[in-house]
Amino acid sequence: MSATQDNKQQDTNGKVAVVTGASSGIGEATAKALAAAGFRVVLGARRVERLEAVAEEIRAAGGQAGVVKLDVTSDADVAALAAAEPRVDVLVNNAGGAKGMESIEGAVEEKWRWMYEVNVLGTLRVTRALLPALKAAQGIVLTVGSIAGRQVYVGGAGYNAAKHGERALVEVLRQEVAADGIRVTEIDPGRVHTDFSLVRFDGDEAKAAAVYDGVESLTAGDIADIIVFAATLPHRVNIDFLQVTPIDQVGGAKPKK
After folding, report:
1. How far is CA 102 from CA 3, 63, 130, 179, 205, in A?
2. Are 44 and 93 in contact (CB under 8 A)?
3. End-to-end Cα, the chain, rounded Å
4. Cα dihedral 175→176→179→185 (10° resolution)
5. Residue range 3-46, pLDDT digits in tens
6. Is 212 known to be catalytic?
7. Can you list the positions of beta strands (E) in the chain?
8. Which of 28, 84, 136, 224 is the most exposed place for a label (fewest CB within 10 A)?
9. Is residue 6 within 8 Å of residue 29, measured between CB atoms?
10. Interatomic CA distance for residues 182 and 106, integer angstroms
11. Catalytic residue, candidates 116, 153, 159, 212
């Protein structure tokens, strides 16, 4: 057997991929990319009407897609997802986000709670609920973290804390389920041009646009391609984590405008 044959990507026929936060941005791009790679994708998010539109695009392109209403802070929604999907080969924990950039002195506890609830407990709820199916399939859990979980910055305390917490969860999970044949990967993007900043600044389009002004950011599709690559590697291959940034953000470099 040649090295090329030995390292071919996995067969995706009949396999199921669940993507949280799939109504826009990285989640939407990932759902489309996984469907194009041959997975039946299950799209989960709060905005069901937007999910239906994304699913229709996937079907129009010849893919298979289903939609579930999923608020990762809702035990009922997560339980319904697990009950509806007895087979799960790939779980993409993408739901998350940031709120505000207040200093620690000016911290708004409600925003901190939201960030912890969505990024940490949301990832916990969905992963825990789908682990029996993932064990049966010897599947893979891919979590979209952030460089904020590895590099702290002024104004990012609440988000830094949440993403560091999510990273700890993922690293412990990897050790716990390796014996079950489950692969666990964390993808930590830097600056990606999505609705992330619009959410962070409570819909302030000017503030959100300023984040990306004069710099070249990653696209949601860049991250989706990496997720598909990791998901379809031979089962023996586990990428523990992968940090990816636009070139002007490498090593924490300040972008030149």
Report:
1. 52, 43, 35, 42, 18
2. no
3. 51
4. -50
5. 555 666 788 889 999 999 999 999 999 999 999 999 999 999 99
6. no
7. 16-20, 40-45, 64-69, 90-93, 140-144, 183-189, 241-244
8. 84
9. no
10. 41
11. 159
Tell me which residues of the chain have a pLDDT lower than 50. Answer: 1-2, 256-257
Q: How far apart are CA 103 and CA 81, in angstroms?
A: 37
Tokens of 124: 């916990």
Total Cβ atoms within 10 A of residue 2: 7
Q: Is 76 exposed, middle or buried (0-12, 13-18, 19+ CB in 10 A)?
A: exposed
| Pick from 26, 27, 28: nearest CA to 217 | 26
Element (H, E) at 84: helix 75-84
**Count of other CB atoms within 10 angstroms of residue 195:** 15
- Bridge partners of 186, per DSSP, are 143, 241
Tokens of 257: 């405008």
Three-class secondary structure of residue 47 per DSSP = coil
Rounded Cα gap, residues 41 and 19, in angstroms: 7
**The tokens of 137 are what?**
């399939």
